[in-house]
C-alpha cells in the first residue's frame, strides 16, 4: 500500500473515533432488580417477597420505588411496595410484605410454586403531575415457603 494512503487511512480512522461520542451513560450504573427464589408465607397470612436492586446516576431524580406482584394459580396480588429506594449506584436489599386477602377457605396463597413480577420505577414530575417511569421490570419463578408453626 502506498504510504500516503496508509497515513490518510490512519488519520481518517482517528478522526472517526473522535467524532463518535462514547455512550452517554457510560459512567452511570445500570438499573437492576433481582427477586429472591424463595418467598415467605407467615402463619398470620403475611407474605414476604425480597431481592436486590440497584439504581443511580446524578440524573436520576424523583422518588424511586419497588413494587411486587405475586401470582399463583389463578390468583394475583400486589405485595407491598418499597418507597424511597436509595439510588446511589450500589446494590441494596428490598423486602415487601403484605397480608394476603382471605377467601372463604383461608388465604388465597399457599406453599409451593409461584411467580413474582417486580418493578423498579421512578415518579417523574411532568408539569407538576407525578407520572411513573419504569426503570426495570423483572419476573421470576419462586417457591413460597410456609413458616407456620405447629
TrEMBL record:
It comes from the Bacteria. The keyword Signal applies. Keywords: Signal. It holds the Pfam family DUF6299. Residues 31-146 form the DUF6299 domain. Residues 1-26 form the signal peptide. InterPro entries: DUF6299. This is DUF6299 domain-containing protein. It comes from Streptomyces palmae. The lineage of its organism: Bacteria, Bacillati, Actinomycetota, Actinomycetes, Kitasatosporales.
Amino acid at each position: 500500500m502506498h504510504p500516503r494512503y496508509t497515513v490518510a487511512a490512519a488519520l481518517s480512522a482517528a478522526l472517526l473515533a473522535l467524532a463518535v461520542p462514547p455512550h452517554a451513560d457510560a459512567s452511570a450504573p445500570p438499573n437492576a432488580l433481582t427477586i429472591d427464589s424463595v418467598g415467605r408465607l407467615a402463619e398470620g397470612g403475611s407474605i414476604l417477597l425480597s431481592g436486590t436492586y440497584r439504581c443511580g446516576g446524578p440524573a436520576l431524580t424523583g422518588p424511586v420505588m419497588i413494587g411486587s406482584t405475586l401470582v399463583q394459580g389463578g390468583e394475583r396480588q400486589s405485595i407491598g411496595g418499597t418507597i424511597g429506594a436509595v439510588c446511589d449506584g450500589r446494590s441494596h436489599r428490598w423486602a415487601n410484605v403484605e397480608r394476603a386477602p382471605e377467601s372463604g377457605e383461608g388465604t388465597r396463597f399457599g406453599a409451593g410454586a409461584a411467580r413474582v413480577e417486580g418493578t423498579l420505577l421512578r415518579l417523574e414530575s411532568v408539569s407538576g403531575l407525578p407520572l411513573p417511569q419504569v426503570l426495570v421490570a423483572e419476573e421470576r419463578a419462586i417457591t413460597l415457603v410456609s413458616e407456620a408453626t405447629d
